[in-house]
Amino acid sequence: MSQPSAPRKTPGRPARISREDIIETGRRIVTEEGVDRLTMRRLAKDIGSTPMALYHHVRDKEELLVLLLDDYATRTMHRPELPADPRERIVVAASAIHDVLAACPWIVEVLTADDLMSTSALWFVEQIVGGLMECGLNPERAVHAYRAIWYYTAGEIVVRTAAARRRAADERPTYREQVFAGLDPSEYPRLAQVADRWAPLTAEDTYVVQLRALVDGLLLTR
Amino acid sequence: MSQPSAPRKTPGRPARISREDIIETGRRIVTEEGVDRLTMRRLAKDIGSTPMALYHHVRDKEELLVLLLDDYATRTMHRPELPADPRERIVVAASAIHDVLAACPWIVEVLTADDLMSTSALWFVEQIVGGLMECGLNPERAVHAYRAIWYYTAGEIVVRTAAARRRAADERPTYREQVFAGLDPSEYPRLAQVADRWAPLTAEDTYVVQLRALVDGLLLTR
DNA sequence: ACCTGAACACCGTTCAAGT
DNA sequence: ACCTGAACACCGTTCAAGT
């Protein structure tokens, strides 16, 4: 997102801290201790300054988070070799975005605050939209199809991250486990049938196979 | 989620406030002023009590939010007539969940804290999983397919809610608009091609048509 | 059993002043 | 131009005491 922060040509007092310092320290806190521990006060302390000094370099905490996401994406989104087959290219590009975000559990907080994603992801979006068009979709349908892929990907990450957080925080059996244990088979026959396998089944990572299904469905001529 | 809060048989001091009072007041604050304004202190004030009195009826704020989601779902998730055709039944049931959540913008905060959803949604899940099995998927594949539908649905809501919030908060052009305006057509030919139509295209509500594509893809025998 | 008051350990951000 | 200190207006939650 990084609105170019016009580097000042030393017209006044020399800056003691920079945007880069802030991002670097913020990255350290977030990766080492989690996004919850990132506060303006804590960051200022670690950087050896005061909370209000930060506000000369970032507009507010939300901008800081977006800056950190941008920094993370730039650092980790390296363009891979993509297959020549357009359908396969879509799957690989979407999976690349997915894997980067999935490896970054604090992303979820920012995802809902961010304008989708940084410029680093643009190349991947280009590949996906391009692949969809090569497969015969017109530009409008390609954009809509890309969005469906993005919704599926973002949803997978949000839900999985939430589930992981709950497992970490909670020792006692989840509410869902209780519900499934006492399921009335006459009212919910299908769910009762899979009740005892629900937890392991939903823990399986099926992102890619379902992504393929989604892409296949999007490319069907209906 | 509502762990049954064993109603006490007046063994000690009579309760001045109840779980129901708390939920009712919480619902009012959330619907009238948004989830951000719901604090334990504010809720206590509105209910005419003290913050700590609340902690005798709910474990913490997270439980309160889950209780409120549960309350909302129970109130609004009415079972509709579903079509006999299983494929169509899946689409209608998923759309019903989607529409209820989409009408409830504060849901997103809770979605990431909640064990998926309340018992009120279980009937819809049963219909979806049942429909998938009727269409020929074995139980395992049906559960996985249901999850893909849920990811897509949750993602759509999270991303759209975030986008709406940004539009509301921000007057200036979004970062994405700036990026698309200055897109290099030689590096991003496909995106450049749709750049000027990106905003209206992504604003279109295509949840149901893309859901159909997803369901079609999930039901393909591959 | 249920509620209260005071306190703990924090937040993000504004404002006015300093260098 | 950049930074500081103090203050504003809050948080969720714990603890010890009251009824």
How many alpha or pi helices of chain A?
Answer: 12
- The whole-number mean of residue pLDDT values of chain A reads 88
CATH class assignment of the domain at 80-219 in chain A: Mainly Alpha
Label the CATH architecture of the domain at 80-219 in chain A: Orthogonal Bundle
From the helix content, strand content and strand pairing of chain A, which structural class follows? mainly alpha
- What's the total number of strands of chain A? 0
Percent of residues of chain A in helical segments?
55-70%
Q: Care to describe what's here?
A:
- The structure is a homodimer of 222-residue chains.
- With 222 residues, chain A is mainly α.
- The first copy, chain A, has a domain at 80-219: Orthogonal Bundle (Tetracycline Repressor, domain 2).
- The first copy, chain A, has twelve helices and no strands.
- In chain A, helix 1 (19-33) packs across helix 2 (40-47), helix 1 crosses helix 4 (61-76) and helix 5 (86-102) runs antiparallel to helix 7 (122-134).
- The longest helix of chain A is centred in the C-terminal third of the chain and has 31 residues, at 139-169.
- The two termini of chain A are 38 Å apart.
- Mean pLDDT of chain A is 88; it is low at 1-9.
- Chain A binds a DNA duplex (19 and 19 nucleotides) through residues 8, 10-17, 39-41, 49-53, 55-56, 60-61.
Task: Report a brief summary of the structure.
The structure is a homodimer of 222-residue chains. With 222 residues, the first copy, chain A, is mainly alpha-helical.
